[in-house]
Amino acid sequence: MHGPAQEWKKDSASSIKELLGVWLFFLYLIVYVGFIVINVVSPKFMSIDVGSLNVAITYGMGLIVLAMVLAFAYNHVSTHAEELLNNGHEIEEDDDQGKHRNNDRDQHQRRGGKAE
After folding, report:
1. pLDDT value of position 97
2. CA distance 34 to 60
């Protein structure tokens, strides 16, 4: 067997992604509940023609398109948040490691060792 393809690190953007996901879920839920309520309360409204289709078909297709748009929006914002927040932490970790290396080198030189 083999290990994971990539090392898992802390996701600093997870709280932003979680909040965004919840907001987009509730936005979609409101639009979907509207569709259900209209179907239950006024089914005749759903039979009104909009061009060659009726309101029910148009609204249903709109729900599908909205779900795709929200998914792309979530992906775009999440990717951007990960790039901003996670890359910054990797740089800080690299800086910390560099400081440790410099401190080790300085201590070695103070003890009489040659510079590397």
Report:
1. 53
2. 11
